[in-house]
Design a protein that fits this description.
Multifunctional methyltransferase subunit TRM112-like protein, alpha+beta, protein heterodimerization activity, 32% helix, two-stranded antiparallel sheet, 16% strand, Trm112
């Protein structure tokens, strides 16, 4: 699973009042070489909850200098887009554990990798 996917996950377990964002803990990390596409990254950033992305990146030790708040005019800042690309697209996490902090519930992915993204 990539942090791009993680950013869009929410717990719908009965009794969970606030299932977003999920905390994440990983066992293995795989680095993928992926071509940098600034247009794609810009479009994806617009769909993300930025603070949740930064929080998840910090949890897995991969924040790569991301600012805590989304910068204005990020679409035209190539250095920023490369950092975002690196965090969103290059790292793939294996054997994930997710938890809903406010409820103390924990989940583990059933697949080695979530292959959707």
């Amino acid at each position: 699973m990539r942090l791009l996917t993680h950013n869009m996950l929410k717990s719908h377990v009965k009794g969970v009042k606030n299932g977003y964002p999920l905390a994440i803990e990983v066992v293995n990390v795989v680095v993928n070489e992926v071509d940098f596409n600034p247009d794609f990254i810009s479009r994806m950033i617009a769909k993300l909850e930025w603070s949740a992305l930064v929080q998840a990146a910090q949890q897995v030790g991969r924040s790569e200098g991301l600012p805590s708040e989304l910068i204005p005019d990020y679409e035209n800042d190539e250095e920023f887009l490369k950092k975002a690309h690196h965090v969103l697209w290059r790292w793939k996490y294996k054997k994930d554990h997710w938890s809903v902090r406010s409820q103390g519930k924990s989940f583990q992915s059933k697949m080695e990798y979530l292959t959707c993204c």
